[in-house]
Amino acid sequence: MNREDFKSTLKEILDNNKIGTLATIRDNKPISRYMYFYNDGLTLYTYTKQDTYKVEDLEENPHAHVLLGYEERDDLGERYVEIQGQASLPEEVSSDVDNLLSNLGKRYEKLKEEGDLQIIKIDIEAARIMNDDDTEPRTVEL
């Protein structure tokens, strides 16, 4: 799979899978939790309350790991993607990202109204698509 095909397949997985895990590092140990993810192209976004361990973890160490996918496909295996990225904690986001996240429902709007909303932006540095047909998994730097 060439680089452009890889990016296209990666975007397809991101577009079609919104629940995954976010792993951060706390006290030199990985901690993982389920999150909803939304993408703008090949950039991931999620959100949380401001006063959470994951925010503290990312302030201390911005390296993040995300698993998304595990789609059942007839006779093809359960395709998913492993993502390594740099997380940031923007104070504000573009109106496009705000609209994307506001479609998530009441929790997003409630946290936003309360001033307790923290967006997490993950710029993908490398990704690895697993169980994709007969293609051997390989990590692609983005």
TrEMBL record:
Protein name, per record: General stress protein
Pfam families, A to Z: PNPOx_N
Coiled-coil ranges from the UniProt annotation: none
Pyridoxamine 5'-phosphate oxidase N-terminal domain: residues covered: 8-129
Domain of life (superkingdom): Bacteria
Gene3D superfamilies per record: Electron Transport, Fmn-binding Protein, Chain A
Matching InterPro entries: Pyridox_Oxase_N, Split_barrel_FMN-bd, Stress-Dev_Protein
Organism: Salinicoccus cyprini
